[in-house]
Design a protein that fits this description.
heterodimer; A: two-stranded antiparallel sheet; two-stranded antiparallel ribbon; globular; B: about 230 residues; mainly alpha; Arp2/3 complex 21 kDa subunit ARPC3; two-stranded antiparallel sheet
Chain lengths: ~300, ~230
């Protein structure tokens, strides 16, 4: 069949036009970056709901068991002072994540991001002997003499110490384990179930109501801001300066604040209309099943094992 | 500013949980006394408002960015106890849902950002404003309330992190929790905040304050009281 596309559409664009978007793409405005963050928040919410509803080991357990498991294991992770114990806890969490049919690459991408930036990168300079004294395993620089400046001492030979490396590895592993425990529970438990478990664990009703409403408002606010920004961009010809951006953000935040304040009365009336009577009532929070009890025993037994490891 | 899990030893995070619990209980009592259940959506909205403020990274000179916490402006607008409750909610949600700040460190994070910061901001505002209802004095008070609140919160964070090598190291000197001593954490946090992030917080506070003063001056708690 003959090609009917006009010739001008088949022409290659001149090089200067092609190269422009690449240069500009790297310099997005701070509002765009903030909006990306907002979109990320909305995505996180949706992903959480999707994963929490999938059938798997942890998804089948009562939220009370999972909340107690999280609190117990987070405490154990913070108490352990040996690398092999932290590594063993990491393997246990991996097995639980696999048994819960969570997308492991996506799960660990997020976990390792936190572990790398907040653990490894932050702690890495502390492995130098100028911060953590000890046996140098990797010499880096040798100065002509040691230097003393106010309360700081710079030794003649600067290098990475065995003790410093231990500290970096310990902190990174502890952060990876703590974050993966939180995400594991989050990915397998809907937020409403977490609130239900907290109610049973005697958290005051006012706190639970505030938590639930704040959580919902965050997503509503995030969506509203994203839509306002898109509406603004669609009307804008050319770019806006940083100071204009700052004024726009301040104006929009105030606008949302005022708008929502006016809506609060309506929200409360809607709450009353749905039978709200000053306290949080629970539906469907029955007794623990045999599987819940068995899993709880398994978690407690494993936890104690890790404590004495 | 959000301390993750693993940086604080139990001898630091357990007492800070205790202090924060005390303030949460007092905040709840104050809120129940001052506000009825119909205001709970309002408090939740304040929490979401603080969350939203924290998501916008504002460019600052030097090519970097920083974000505000919002505890200062909420304290000035809605009162310090409301700010304690609202910012605590945000920190709880951030720790549980978004992995921002640790669960063991929640007490410490709440003490720094949801307890110390609102009260320092509110008191700074009242101290500088001294009953003025308009004019430049109000804007200076708003800027300094945000600036002082975040700076004190940052210093508290620096001290909590910096004492770890002193109180929780192995006998051979291996760091078991946050590895940097006070001589590193205090100057690092002071430089970053006094010269940069506290200015962002102060600017955000004064910008929002300006809008509220123009459109809804009756809403501002710190002015209403005087």
């Amino acid at each position: 069949m003959e090609n009917k596309i006009p010739a001008f559409l088949l022409e290659e664009p001149p090089p200067e036009i092609r190269s422009r978007p690449a240069r500009r793409a790297s310099k997005s405005s701070f509002i765009d970056r903030g909006l990306k963050h907002v979109a990320g928040v909305i995505n996180t919410g949706y992903i959480q709901w999707e994963t929490a509803s999938q059938g798997g080991f942890l998804q089948g357990l009562d939220a009370r068991v999972k909340v107690i498991f999280l609190a117990f294991f987070i405490l154990i992770v913070s108490l352990k002072r040996e690398l092999h114990a932290e590594a063993a806890i990491g393997v246990f969490i991996f097995l639980l994540a696999a048994a819960s049919h969570i997308s492991l690459p996506a799960f660990y991408r997020r976990v390792f991001f936190f572990g790398f930036f907040f653990g490894f990168l932050v702690a890495l300079p502390s492995s130098l002997n100028s911060v953590t004294r000890g046996e140098i395993v990797l010499p880096l620089v040798t100065l002509s003499k040691p230097y003393d400046f106010w309360i700081y001492h710079i030794p003649r030979q600067i290098g990475i110490t065995r003790e410093g490396l231990f500290g970096v590895a310990m902190l990174t592993l502890r952060i990876v384990n703590s974050v993966s425990l939180s995400f594991l529970i989050l990915y397998t438990t809907p937020f409403t179930e977490i609130i239900k478990a907290l109610k049973i664990l005697k958290i005051p009703d006012t706190v639970l109501m505030m938590l639930t409403l704040s959580y919902k408002y965050i997503f509503i606010f995030a969506k509203t801001v994203e839509e306002m920004h898109l509406a603004k961009r669609s009307r804008l010809a050319g770019g806006a300066s940083s100071s204009e951006g700052r004024r726009w953000i301040a104006g929009r935040i105030t606008f949302i604040f005022r708008k929502t304040r006016l809506r609060c009365e309506e929200v409360f009336k809607a709450m009353l209309g749905r039978g709200f009577s000053d306290s949080v009532r629970l539906y469907g929070s029955g007794r623990l099943t045999a599987t819940d009890r068995l899993s709880c025993t398994l978690f407690i037994f494993t936890g104690i094992l890790f404590l004495f490891m | 500013m959000h301390i993750p899990d693993g940086y604080l030893s139990p001898q630091t995070y357990i007492p800070l949980y205790g202090i924060s619990l005390g303030f949460w209980a007092l905040a709840l009592r104050n809120i129940k006394k001052e506000l009825s259940t119909r205001h709970i959506p309002y408090l939740a909205m304040a929490a979401a408002f603080s969350f939203l403020i924290q998501m916008f990274n504002i460019p600052v000179p030097g090519g970097t960015t920083g974000h505000a916490v919002g505890a200062g402006i909420i304290a000035v607008l809605l009162g310090p106890w409301t700010s304690v409750a609202a910012v605590s909610m945000v920190l709880v949600i951030q720790a549980i849902v978004f992995g921002d700040g640790g669960i063991t460190a929640l007490g410490a994070n709440c003490f720094n950002m949801a307890v110390a910061m609102p009260f320092v901001s509110y008191l700074t505002f009242k101290l500088i404003n001294r009953g003025s209802k308009n004019g430049r004095r109000l804007y200076i008070a708003a800027f300094l309330s945000g600036y002082a609140g975040l700076s004190i919160a940052a210093m508290l964070t620096a001290v909590e992190l910096g004492i770890q090598p002193l109180i929780a190291s192995a006998p051979d000197g291996r760091p078991l929790y946050a590895p940097y001593p006070l001589s590193v954490t205090v100057p690092a946090m002071a430089l970053g905040h006094f010269l940069l992030l506290s200015i962002v917080e102060g600017t955000m506070t004064v910008l929002l304050f300006k809008y509220f003063l123009k459109h809804e001056p009756g809403l501002i708690h710190a002015i209403k009281e005087t």
